[in-house]
């Protein structure tokens, strides 16, 4: 997969060049990173190879509640970067009292609760870690599930707090 980063001038031309690589079988599929409703609404009618996914910043403090369904309803996968808030921001999120309470109820970690919350929103997660124990933990997301009440408790943590612009 080849990803086209955030919208800017010349994106349609750049994407059309990438489409040729797909048509020639040189790359399998295309993706976008840091694209939102307004830009996608203008961009998508101009292209012929639908992106397989859009990768955006998403975590409990920045949930993209309008953007995620907008993308998913078009049959495009949503993938989130900074699922744990991003380096430098993880501590507040992992110690958030709502997340900790839910983690304790399931006997899992705060990171697992957040990653499971993403999966239940049908969002692909790509947590970053250089710690083997964390990597193992981050893969162990299928032995528990969050209730509707727990999903709602996390939903109301949204504070439109974006941690980075790329
Ligand atoms: N498309 C874009 O514009 C864009 C922008 C930014 C990032 N990204 C991508 O998004 C991915 C994630 O980004 P990121 O790594 O910066 O942010 P992140 O996944 O939100 O946070 C990573 C931090 O969380 C810690 N962590 C991971 N698992 C943990 C666990 N189970 N318990 C406690 N702490 C845990 C890591 O520390 P340890 O190493 O100690 O586990 C690291 O400090 C990367 O693949 C990155 O390339 C894409």
Q: Could you say how many structural domains there are in total?
A: 2
Helical content class: 40-55%
Cα distance spanning the termini = 19 Å
Tell me the major beta sheet.
Answer: 5 strands, parallel
Element string (H = helix, E = strand): EHEHEHEHHHEHH
> What gyration radius follows from the Cα positions, in whole Å?
17 Å
As residue ranges, the low-confidence spans are: none
Q: Name the overall outline.
A: elongated
Number of strands: 5
Q: Would you tell me the structural class of the helices and strands? A: alpha/beta
Strand order of the main beta sheet, please?
A: 1-2-3-4-5
Give average pLDDT, whole number.
96
Number of helices, counting only DSSP H or I runs of 4 residues or more: 8
List cofactors, ions and other ligands: NADP nicotinamide-adenine-dinucleotide phosphate
Beta-strand percent range: 5-15%
Question: What attributes characterize this protein structure?
Answer:
166 residues, 8 helices, single chain, alpha/beta, binds NADP nicotinamide-adenine-dinucleotide phosphate, 2 domains, five-stranded parallel sheet
Give the topology, please.
Blueprint: E1 2-4, H1 11-23, E2 30-33, H2 37-43, E3 53-57, H3 67-72, E4 77-81, H4 90-94, H5 97-106, H6 110-120, E5 123-125, H7 132-139, H8 148-155
Parallel strand pairs: 1-2, 2-3, 3-4, 4-5
Helix pairs in contact: 5-6
Bound molecules: NADP nicotinamide-adenine-dinucleotide phosphate (NAP).
């Amino acid at each position: 997969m080849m990803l086209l980063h955030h919208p800017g001038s010349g994106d349609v031309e750049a994407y059309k060049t990438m489409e040729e690589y797909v048509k020639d079988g040189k790359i399998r599929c295309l993706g976008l990173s840091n694209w939102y409703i307004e830009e996608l609404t203008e961009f998508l009618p101009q292209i012929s190879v639908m992106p397989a996914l859009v990768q955006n910043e998403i975590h409990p403090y920045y949930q993209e509640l309008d953007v995620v369904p907008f993308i998913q309803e078009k049959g495009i996968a949503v993938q989130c970067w900074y699922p744990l808030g991003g380096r430098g921001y993880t501590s507040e999120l992992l110690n958030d009292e709502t997340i900790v309470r839910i983690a304790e109820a399931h006997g899992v970690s705060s990171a697992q609760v957040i990653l499971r919350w993403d999966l239940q929103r049908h969002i692909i997660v790509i947590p970053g870690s250089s710690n083997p124990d964390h990597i193992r933990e981050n893969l162990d997301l299928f032995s528990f599930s969050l209730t509707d009440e727990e999903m709602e408790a996390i939903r109301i943590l949204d504070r439109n707090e974006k941690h980075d612009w790329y």
